[in-house]
Amino acid sequence: MPGMSSAQAVEDAFYDALRQGDLATVMSLWADDDDVVCIHPGGPRLSGLATIRESWEGILREGGLPVTPTQRQCVTGAVLAVHHVIEEIKVSSPRGAQIAHCFATNVFVKDASGWRLLSHHASPATDHVATPLPSGERLH
């Protein structure tokens, strides 16, 4: 898939694809670069498209991820954009459905074909804004 016309369009497509459980679209948004990096909440640093694909495949195996980005803060330059978001993720727990929060940083790069995702780093939010994860729960 060619890149998109803006980093915001890539980010919107990324979260839409996660909600739909659409692995092919999720992966089509990444830069074709050996240096792509993905860090899931509490997980290790994953480098390279094959490793990142494998991780998302496991996460999306049972369907979409109910995640919505909120409170975006964006910095965009000529060829690089950094978006900080708070991800709201619906999780099931013994107390019923709840919303957990992660802080996420998405980095985008622009090449000849348009904007692509270079890095996604998410971690559990731990300040007053966040709802703690139920024990043993994994967000993505």
Q: What secondary-structure arrangement, pairings included, does this model have?
A:
Layout: H1 7-20, H2 23-28, E1 37-39, E2 45-47, H3 49-60, E3 67-76, E4 80-93, E5 96-111, E6 114-124
Parallel strand pairs: 1-6
Antiparallel strand pairs: 1-2, 3-4, 4-5, 5-6
Q: What would the principal axes of the Cα set say about the shape?
A: globular
The secondary-structure class comes to: alpha+beta
The strands making up the biggest β-sheet line up spatially as: 2-1-6-5-4-3
What is the CATH class?
Answer: Alpha Beta
Count of distinct strands: 6
Helix-residue proportion: 10-25%
From the N-terminal CA to the C-terminal CA, the straight-line distance is 24 Å
What is the average per-residue confidence, as pLDDT, rounded to a whole number? 91
User: What would CATH call the architecture?
Assistant: Roll
Question: Number of folding domains?
Answer: 1
Number of helices: 3
Low-confidence stretches: none
How does the major sheet shape up?
6 strands, mixed
Report on this model:
The protein is an alpha+beta fold. It has a single domain, classed as Nuclear Transport Factor 2, Chain: A (Roll). It is 23% helix and 41% strand. It has three helices and six strands, in the order ααββαββββ. Strands 2-1-6-5-4-3 form a six-stranded mixed beta sheet. The chain is globular, with a radius of gyration of 15 Å. The two termini are 24 Å apart. The relative contact order is 0.23. The mean pLDDT is 91.
